[in-house]
Amino acid sequence: MFLLALACVTPAPGTDSNDSARSDSAGTDDSQSDDSGDTQDTQDEIDPLAPVIETCDAYCYLHQTGDENYQWKIECSVDDPDGVDNIWNGRFEIEYSGARIADDKMACDDAGYCSGSFGETTHEVYCDKADSYMFLVYISDWDEHESAPYKVAGRKG
Prior knowledge:
Immunoglobulin-like; about 10% helix
């Protein structure tokens, strides 16, 4: 049954990873962890062929080009056992008070850099409460392996 659940976690290239993100998190309970700050979550068995998230940052800032508005930026440095050019894409979930409130996608380049961004009103994730949000980042490779979740606390940049 574990293998079936693992197969459902990672979206195949060309599929909608947003649907997979919703179905994955519906069956997991990350609220058992009382960790805060930046961590590689190791509660579940880690796929040795999956990408490894080395660092992440999640911060909001005042975007001043054009219309001024607050933006969130999520940036990660990632490695993969088959090389950084095997990294495909990513996704992140946003938690507030232990409850998942939103999710979104990330783009990755072939140098191991992944990022995503959104306006604070898109997901109602407001900059004035930046340190109240926890971001869980997942990165996938072209071989359909998904990283363990990397938890990073939001901050005002």
